[in-house]
Each structure stands twice: as C-alpha cells, then as structure tokens.
Amino acid sequence: MNGEKNFQNANVVILKPNFVVKNATFGRADITSLKNNTILPGRENTTEQLVISTRNLTFIENGVFNNFTALKSLSLIGTNLTNITDEVFTKELGATLIELDLSFNEFKLLSSIDFSHLTNLKTLNLHGSKFGKNFSTSPSVFPKSLANLETLILSNCGFEVLNTSIFENLLNLKTLYLSENPLKTMPTAINYLPSLQNLYLETTSIIILNNTGIKMNQNLEKLVLTNSRLERIEDCAFCSFPNIKVLHFWSNLKLSFIDENAFGFAKNGTSPKIESLSFEHCKLEIIPEKLLDWKNIKEIGIGGNNFMCNCSLSWLINGIDNLNLVQLYTHPSEGSRYHYSIYYGFEEIRENNLQCQGPMALNKIHFSIISGNLCKKKSPQHSDSVPPHHVFCYVLCAFIVLLIIFAAISYPIYQLYLRFKKNKTATPFSYENNNFDGDSEANNP
Q: The sheet that has 232-233: what strands, in order across it?
C-alpha cells in the first residue's frame, strides 16, 4: 500500500474485508500527529512494515504502535521530532521490531531517543540526525538494550570525533556507516566493536590514514573510504585488520602516497586476505610492488591515476597480463556503465585503459604498448657473462701468444749467448800458441 497523495492523517479504513495489509507507506504526507487507533485501524495486527515520511509530524501519542503486533520494520523519516520516549517505543513494540529508520529527524542528543525496550532491534538508521559536536562531548552511549544490533547508520550526522566508548554495548554490531561526517582520523571508538565486519567512511575529512590508537580487529572484512580528502596512507595503516578482504578507496582525488608497508606485508611477509582492491581515480604516481601479493587478489581497480612510468612501476607494467585488473568504479565523466565485482555481481569489464602520465616521452602511452620492455633486466641467456668453454679457449690462446712472444725474445738472446761463448773459447788457444813459439826461439841460439 502506498499513499502517494498528501495524507492529512494515517486513518485509512480499508473496506475490503479479505484485504491483508503487510506493507504500508505514507510518503510526502502532511501528517502532524499520530494518535491511537488512527493508523490503519483494524489492520494493525497484519502490518509488518510501516513507513511514515512527513516533515510536519511533531507529536506521537503514547502506545500508538502497541496494536501493531506483527510489525518488524518501522520508519519515521524526515519529521520534526526532537525526542521519543519509552512510552512510544514500548515493550509491546520491541517484542517484534527488527528494523528502525529514524533518518533526517531533529534529534540533537542520543539520549533524546529511548531504546530501552527495543531489545530485538537488528538495524538502526539515524542518518541525517543533528548530533554534530554533541556526539564527541556527550557521555551518552548506545544502551545495553541494543546489544543485538547488527547494522548502525550514523551517516551525515555532523560529528568530527566520536566519544571513544559510545559503542561499548554494541557487542554484536557487524556493519557501521560513518560516511559524510567531517571525521579527521580513524575513530578509535571502533575498538569497542569486536564483531565489526564492515566499516564505511565515505566522504569524510580524513587526510592521513594510520593505525594510531586502533586495536587489533580480527573480524573486519570490508573497509570503504571513498570521495574523501585522504592524501596519505602510512606505514602499517591496515595492520590492525589482518583478515580484511575488501578495500575500496576510489575517487580520493588527493591520495598520492601509499607506504609499501601499509599492510605489514613488505616487512613481515604475512599476506593479507585481500580479494577486492580499488585505488581508482586517485592521484597515485607509483604503486609499491611490495604492498601486497598482487597475483592472489581476485579483482584490482587502479585506473584513472597519474602513473609515472619509470622503473619503480615496471613490475606493474611488465606484468599487467598476470594481474586481475577490472573496473570497480566508473567515474562520472565516463558515463554510466555497469562493472563486474565478486561483491556486486555486475558484468565484468576488464581494465584496458591504463596509461602513463609521465615522463614526457611516455605521456599518454598505454601500458600494453610498453609492457615487457620497461626497465627489463637481461635474462641469463642474454647476459654479458662468458660461458666456461669460451674462457678456456681465451686462456689457451693467451698462453700460445705469450709462448710465441717468449720464443721471439729468447732466440736472439740465445744466439748472442752462443756467439759470446765461441769467442771466449777461441782466445786461450791463440795465447798458448804464441808462448810456444817464443819458447822455441829461446832454445835455438
């Protein structure tokens, strides 16, 4: 049932006796108050979902929802309500209610809403509340009655920081939306959420991401921080989330630096369990090779960056065909296109538009053109080292040359030696003959 006209109240009487109301929506209504027995009278006990969207609503009578004995989902959207007591959110309502949407209301304090009887609540939407700085200064925390809560939406509530212990009673919370708030650091309040699996921080004011004050969380699997003012991701920023699987950081237009040890992989070699990664449409010139074990990631989105095609990026360019590169995010300038994702299930689009933005000689050159050739090291088959059998030949030739040189020098020396020896032998015989002749003459007068 959908009331598209401007209803003045919710006192809608259905004449058809066998008609069963399951879902009822009063959208864009001019309802100013909700009073007992004036909301779908006679059909309350079959209604499972009730949506009332009206800017004029300022008053709700106590016990107005008590007759809705099957109600699982209640939405009071965009009203002028500033508080709701436990006489409205009664024990009778809490017995069945699983989902509560109080988005775009005028609540300024968390204590303005009494959740004490909503013990079965699984999903709570407070998007667009006016909490502002009160969330950081107020000692209020979500009550123990919400211990079964699994999804909490606190987007666009205007707070810069969170009271550290605000979530201390939400022991089963799995999904937390803190998007569109001017948060400047990763909130340490998540330390009180041991079951947290999904954290959304889109459009925040976080500039530098690190793990300062963040305790180990073994259950976190998905972190989304897109369209923010993020500029740097520092050493061990994700070390507190060892089992993270999905990391989407697209459209952070100032993000220009990622420390190679952001996951701890570069230093300790422990590979994170990342399955889906996106740093698309950021300002990255280089992506560190040691950041992750890239071949084990099922989908990688890195398009739209200012890649500097030097040797620091050669690992990516030369190995582009071995990586699971896809488009996980479509920039508005690229038009509306569906993409494939193991988490979103759309048709796969292989990323084929990666190109260099520098140096000048490679500007606008696609990775595929220079893949396999950028800063390529010579393989052993093409190295400058000389094979062993060639070395032996070179040594033998050198020995022969030296032998020839030695012979060429030694032969003249040897000839000179023989001539000198011959002359030395001839001189004594000549002297003896002269003496013999003299003696003869002396003996013959």
A: 208-209, 232-233, 257-258
Residue 116 to residue 272: CA distance in whole angstroms:
40
Q: Which uninterrupted H or E stretch holds 159?
A: none
Confidence (pTM): 0.80
Least confident of 45-59, 274-288, 316-330, 412-426: 412-426
Element housing 23 (H / E): strand 23-26
Tokens (6 digits) for 162: 């969170």
H helices present in 211-326, as ranges: 265-268, 314-318
Going from the C-alpha of 213 to that of each of 191, 198, 251, the distances in angstroms are 9, 19, 26
Q: Residue 416: CB partners within 8 Å, gap ≥ 6? A: none
% the chain with pLDDT above 70: 83
Residue 100 dihedral angles phi and psi, to the nearest 5°:
-135, 120
CA distance 146 to 173: 9
Per-residue pLDDT band at 16 (split at 50, 70, 90)? confident
In a 3-state reduction of DSSP, which class is residue 33? strand
**160, 136 Cβ separation under 8 angstroms:** yes
Q: Which amino acid is at 150?
A: E
Specify the 3-state DSSP secondary structure of 283: coil
Burial pattern 61-76, b for ≥16 Cβ within 10 A else e, equals eeebbbbbeebebbbb
Q: Are the C-beta atoms of 105 and 128 separated by less than 8 Å?
A: yes
In this predicted structure, what is the pLDDT of residue 426? 53
Asked if residues 38 and 62 have their Cβ atoms less than 8 Å apart, the reply is no
